[in-house]
Automatic annotation (TrEMBL):
It comes from the Bacteria. Transmembrane segments: none annotated. SUPFAM superfamilies: PLP-dependent transferases (SSF53383), Winged helix' DNA-binding domain (SSF46785). GO terms for molecular function: transaminase activity. It holds the Pfam family GntR. In the C-terminal section; belongs to the class-I pyridoxal-phosphate-dependent aminotransferase family. Residues 1-69 form the HTH gntR-type domain. This is PLP-dependent aminotransferase family protein.
Length: 470
């Protein structure tokens, strides 16, 4: 465990044991450096992590204080235990039925998969798009065919470089959102009937894409905070002909889990030994609450086996449908797949995003977005502690905008989903995140919408509905 995480865990225990009480001031950075023989950056990172978890708060010109929290901190859910063996998928109709019911804008969107679009600089992006449309050269419709706009790919390569990853613009393929990227990656390395490994629980869109391509899946146990189980994955690779792994390593949907950097390296070494490609869905990776970004998997990719899929939909530009794949050794295949599937991604939008990135300011936007999401997470957790039964379990994420909750076993979240909709509230019931419709008493909640009062009131209603099932 890294030193700042050790310090954060130590401080968290002091808070949990009552030695540091709500409202009390934490040691200053200088004092903590002397006490623990660490650097100022280590203390700062530890305090940022504790702040992101809602345990402490910064007060201007006063330092850090233990945050007042209602109730006892809820326990974490345990490691998942999916039913063994591969699964022939039949999930799309079931998932669409759930998703179609939560599109009403009047519904409190705790079940949404998207953050509030008002969190993004859409006016600024709109001006870039208007400028791009005015100076659009029709010849660019040919020059910006896959792999995509050269300047956008250069800007993306620079962002990888800042994360310690040497990714050539030539291996980046621009896609129409991350979902097209995931489909292209699956098509590049599998054939109908092949078996892929996914986390349990996993994002339903990956299940839908796999079903559409005629693939089977094997679900790998995962921890709601630490992510996919490496021993379980090693056993699955030993026993089954896995053709690819489709994982979220950073702030996974639905759990919010993050695979620690050292375990991420071990995972990549394991896949390298078995010659199994990793398709990483990393759309939430930039939404880390702490000061340091997670390890970029491409920085540890020695043989081009990682297909890193990302987009701007969750961090900058929802609705613009700009995604990409840093495809490693599979770049040429994915480029051809893209040409045959959709020919190209809208060129003026590519130019607009490239202009925005080149002019700077994106990091400032991300910093504000992360701070907002961290504050919303703390507010939702506090509301859950106040209104949900004490047997509720949840894991505190270090980024993203989802909470994964385990309710008492007698609660049926599909039924809760229907009851909540009748009250104008959406939730995402656990069974949509499983090939076998497991997690019947789990649910995912979205804290990426800034109306805290509505979120808190909806949480109170959900707590009452849950109590009725007990």
């Amino acid at each position: 465990m890294s030193r700042y995480r050790e310090l954060a865990a130590h401080t968290e225990k002091l808070i949990a044991d009552g030695l540091l009480r709500p409202g009390e001031r934490l040691p200053s950075v200088r004092s903590a450096c002397r006490s623990h023989a660490v650097s100022p950056i280590t203390v700062t990172q530890a305090y940022y992590l504790l702040e992101s978890r809602g345990l402490i708060e910064a007060r201007p010109k006063s330092g850090y204080f233990v945050r007042a929290r209602l109730g006892q901190r809820l326990a974490e859910p345990a490691m998942s235990h999916p039913v063994g063996g591969s699964t022939q998928l039949q999930v799309s109709d079931f998932i669409f039925q759930i998703l179609d019911s939560v599109r009403d804008p009047a519904v409190v969107p705790l079940g949404s998969s998207f953050p509030d679009p008002r969190l993004f600089p859409l006016d600024k992006l709109g001006r870039h798009l208007a400028n791009a449309a005015r100076r659009f050269d029709p010849l660019a419709s040919l020059s910006d065919l896959p792999p995509g706009n050269e300047e956008l790919r250069r800007q993306l390569a620079l962002r990888y470089l800042a994360l310690g990853a040497d990714v050539s613009p030539q291996e980046i393929v621009i896609t129409s959102g991350a979902m097209e990227g995931l489909n292209l990656c699956l098509q590049a390395v599998t054939r109908p009937g092949d078996l892929i490994a996914v986390e349990s629980p996993t994002f339903y869109a990956g299940l839908q894409a796999s079903e559409r391509l005629g693939l089977k899946v094997i679900e790998i146990p995962s921890h709601p905070r630490a992510g996919v189980s490496l021993p379980a994955l090693a056993e699955a690779l030993r026993r089954h002909p896995v053709k690819a792994c489709l994982f979220m390593l950073n702030f996974a949907n639905p759990t919010g889990s993050r695979v620690a950097d050292e375990h991420k390296r071990e995972l990549l070494e394991l896949l390298d030994r078995h010659e199994v490609p990793l398709i990483e869905d990393d759309v939430y990776g930039e939404l880390h609450f702490g000061p340091q970004a997670p390890l970029c998997s491409k920085a540890a990719d020695r043989r081009g086996l990682v297909m890193h899929v990302c987009s701007f939909a969750k961090s900058l530009a929802p609705g613009y449908r700009i995604g990409w794949v840093a495809a490693g050794r599979h770049a040429r295949s994915i480029q051809r797949q893209k040409l045959s599937l959709s020919l190209a991604t809208t060129v003026p939008v590519q130019i607009a995003i490239a202009d925005y990135l080149r002019q700077g300011g994106h990091e400032n936007h991300l910093r504000r977005l992360r701070n907002t999401l961290a504050a919303r997470e703390a507010a939702l957790v506090e509301a859950i502690e106040r209104h949900f039964p004490p047997a509720t379990r949840l894991a505190r994420p270090e980024g993203g905008y989802f909470l994964w909750l385990e309710l008492p076993p007698q609660v049926d979240t599909l039924r809760l989903h229907q009851q909540a909709l009748a009250q104008g509230i959406s939730i995402a019931p656990g069974p949509i995140f499983s090939a076998k419709r497991e997690f019947g008493h789990y649910l995912r909640l979205n804290f990426g919408h800034p109306d805290t009062a509505a979120m808190t009131a909806a949480t109170a209603v959900l707590g009452q509905l849950i109590e009725q099932q007990l």
